[in-house]
């Protein structure tokens, strides 16, 4: 649905050149929610703003729904933009218009008839749960409600793609969740492709299907969210993952690893339904070892549970080795943190 | 003594009323024409500015210079210098109607700068959102910039109106009449302080009323 190839953006200013994007390529499939995450200054805003040409790329190609964006004339670009919805961190609603009139705005822009506008706006306000606020002004709304208006407005012209520029960064955690839920809901109901940028891993984990990590204007890691989360390759990615899942070994256990002991300390990581508990109990049953659970956590990315367990396996060395060999066969990722004496 | 004042004012009341009307007439018509010229000029100054929706630095510089030159003329000199132009437009260089031409020319660049300032205050994010929705330059001007800046433009128009009332008091020089002229003729030249004080009071009342109306309308349009 969106295909970006070798996109480079260089800002030329008095202070010299800033390479905001350096040969970025990515592909967003139809109907998916694609997240781009990065720290401040990584180039996220620049990237998403290039998609609808709010920012002119220095080089490269951007194809939305089969249409090359970089070569469009002004009038063609306007027509195309009507089909690309966008929501913003600071909502950017017209303060002089009511909620109803704000949602009607893009329809007026594209020349839709009055009666049709009334019908559409009413439906959209229903969809975002703001039917009772139609005659309010933006200044009378909470942040979450403003963003709902922003979403309704972005959907007015039945877009083929929705761009979200830090859509939840100005909201508190509870409101963030409700807005994310709304976006997910819209994504499912309308089969709408969504491209969102954020600096919060929580946003990615809650609703994205795919994720790209951007740093210094380059995509450093990309893939399905579940894969990137469970096997982050790049150190920056790991830092992001750690903001929501603690894959670190807690200090207490770290100390214990340094102590001498007879047991083996093992970390089991699991993804999906392949949880560790039945495996642990069968260790005790079949290998004549004792198992001490030292630490564990389970998280869920959308519908897939994943997590890790740190156990201490106490028993004869041969038995412990057999137990580890057994664990490896169970499709779990095994790391021996401390071997037996 | 108070009786004297009242009878004096009563005999002069036709002239006071006439002068008040002249002032109001000059002011209202000038503000109207000045806005007609100044608002589009202000809009062009904004949208052609660097990084705005219709960047055109050449045009911006030319218009900006014209505005600056006109604004640096003292009104009295502008009024006299514009004589030939005034004759071209209204057929005469003296009288109340003739005063409207220099008042308009003096106020238009003033309006343009005020409108420019008002439009620049409009949240740029809203303009970008409109661009992202595929709005044209004209649609952004008409549906975004002007409505969003409306409270500020109304307050600017209030300032313009009060400024023009001030300028209009110099209209006597070219036979324009009005309250200022009356005050000079009676108060200054004949030492008739009753008339002088009365005209000043009327001017103060007019200014107060205009300011209050301006504030009222601005508040009505302000949805923040
Ligand atoms: N208009 C501009 N002119 C010059 N440099 C710019 C401009 N916009 C962005 N940059 C630079 O480009 C780089 C990327 O900026 P961008 O806004 O895309 O980052 P970001 O990832 O969105 O950051 P944040 O999370 O802080 O919003 C930064 O170094 C920034 O200073
Ligand atoms: Mg940004």
TrEMBL record, chain A:
GO molecular function annotations of the record: ATP binding; ATP hydrolysis activity
CDD domains hit by this protein: ABC_MetN_methionine_transporter
InterPro entries membership: AAA+_ATPase (IPR003593), ABC_transporter-like_ATP-bd (IPR003439), ABC_transporter-like_CS (IPR017871), ACT-like_dom_sf (IPR045865), MetN_ABC (IPR041701), MetN_ABC_transporter-like (IPR050086), NIL_domain (IPR018449), P-loop_NTPase (IPR027417)
SMART domains per record: AAA (SM00382), NIL (SM00930)
Source taxon at top rank: Bacteria
All residue ranges annotated as the ABC transporter domain in the record: 2-241
An example Gene Ontology biological process: amino acid transport
A Pfam family assignment: NIL
Signal peptide: none
Keywords: Amino-acid transport, ATP-binding, Cell membrane, Membrane, Nucleotide-binding, Translocase, Transport
This protein's name: D-methionine transport system ATP-binding protein
Native source species: Desulforamulus aeronauticus DSM 10349
TrEMBL record, chain B:
Residue span(s) of domain ABC transmembrane type-1: 20-214
Entry GO terms, CC: plasma membrane
Matching Pfam families: BPD_transp_1 (PF00528)
Protein origin, superkingdom: Bacteria
One record GO biological process: D-methionine transmembrane transport
Membrane topology: Multi-pass membrane protein
SUPFAM superfamilies: MetI-like (SSF161098)
Protein name: D-methionine transport system permease protein
Species annotation: Desulforamulus aeronauticus DSM 10349
């Amino acid at each position: 649905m969106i295909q970006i190839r070798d996109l480079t953006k260089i800002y030329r200013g008095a202070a010299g050149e800033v390479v905001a994007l350096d040969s970025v390529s990515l592909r967003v499939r139809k109907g998916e929610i694609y997240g781009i995450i990065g720290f401040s200054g990584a180039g996220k805003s620049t990237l998403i703003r290039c998609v609808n040409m709010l920012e002119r790329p220095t080089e490269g190609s951007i194809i939305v729904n089969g249409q090359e964006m970089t070569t469009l004339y002004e009038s063609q670009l306007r027509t195309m933009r009507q089909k690309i919805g966008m929501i913003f961190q600071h909502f950017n609603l017209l303060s002089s218009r009511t909620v109803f009139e704000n949602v009607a705005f893009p329809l007026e822009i594209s020349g839709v008839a009055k009666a049709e506008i009334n019908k559409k706006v009413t439906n959209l306000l229903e969809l975002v749960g703001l039917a009772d606020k139609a005659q309010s002004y933006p200044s009378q709304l909470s942040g979450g409600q403003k963003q709902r208006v922003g979403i309704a407005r972005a959907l007015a012209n039945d877009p083929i793609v929705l761009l979200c520029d830090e859509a939840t960064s100005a909201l508190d955690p509870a409101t963030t969740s409700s807005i994310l839920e709304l976006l997910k809901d819209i994504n499912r109901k309308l089969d709408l492709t969504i491209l969102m940028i954020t600096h919060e891993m929580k946003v990615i984990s809650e609703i994205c299907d795919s994720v790209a990590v951007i740093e210094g204007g380059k995509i450093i890691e990309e893939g399905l969210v579940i894969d990137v989360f469970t096997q982050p390759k790049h150190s920056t990615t790991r830092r992001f993952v750690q903001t929501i899942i603690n894959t670190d070994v807690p200090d207490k256990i770290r100390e214990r690893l340094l102590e001498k002991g007879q047991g083996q300390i093992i970390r089991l990581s699991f993804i999906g339904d392949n949880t560790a508990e039945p495996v642990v109990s069968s260790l005790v049953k079949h290998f004549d070892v004792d198992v001490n659970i030292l630490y564990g956590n389970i998280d869920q990315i959308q519908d897939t549970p994943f997590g890790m367990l740190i156990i201490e396996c106490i028993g004869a060395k041969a038995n412990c080795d057999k137990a580890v060999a057994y664990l490896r066969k169970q499709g779990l990722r095994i790391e021996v943190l401390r071997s037996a004496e | 003594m108070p009786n004297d004042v009242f009878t004096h004012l009563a005999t002069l009341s036709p002239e006071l009323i006439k002068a008040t009307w002249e002032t109001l007439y000059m002011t209202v018509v000038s503000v109207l024409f000045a806005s007609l010229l100044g608002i589009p000029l202000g809009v062009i100054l904004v949208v052609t500015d660097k990084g705005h929706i219709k960047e055109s630095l050449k045009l911006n510089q030319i218009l900006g210079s014209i505005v600056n030159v006109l604004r640096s003329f003292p009104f009295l000199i502008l009024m006299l210098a514009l004589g030939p132009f005034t004759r071209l437009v209204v057929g005469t260089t003296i009288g109340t109607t003739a005063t409207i031409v220099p008042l308009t020319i003096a106020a238009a660049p003033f309006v343009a700068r005020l409108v420019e300032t008002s439009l620049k205050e409009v949240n740029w994010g809203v303009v970008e959102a409109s661009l992202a929705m595929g709005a044209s330059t004209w649609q952004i001007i008409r549906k975004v910039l002007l409505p969003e800046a409306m409270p500020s433009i109304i307050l600017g128009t209030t300032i313009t109106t009060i400024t023009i009332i001030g300028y209009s008091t110099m209209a006597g020089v070219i036979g324009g009449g009005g309250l200022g002229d009356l005050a000079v003729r009676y108060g200054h030249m004949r030492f008739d302080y009753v008339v002088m004080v009365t005209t000043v009071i009327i001017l103060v009342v007019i200014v107060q009323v205009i300011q209050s109306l301006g504030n009222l309308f601005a508040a009505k349009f302000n949805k923040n």
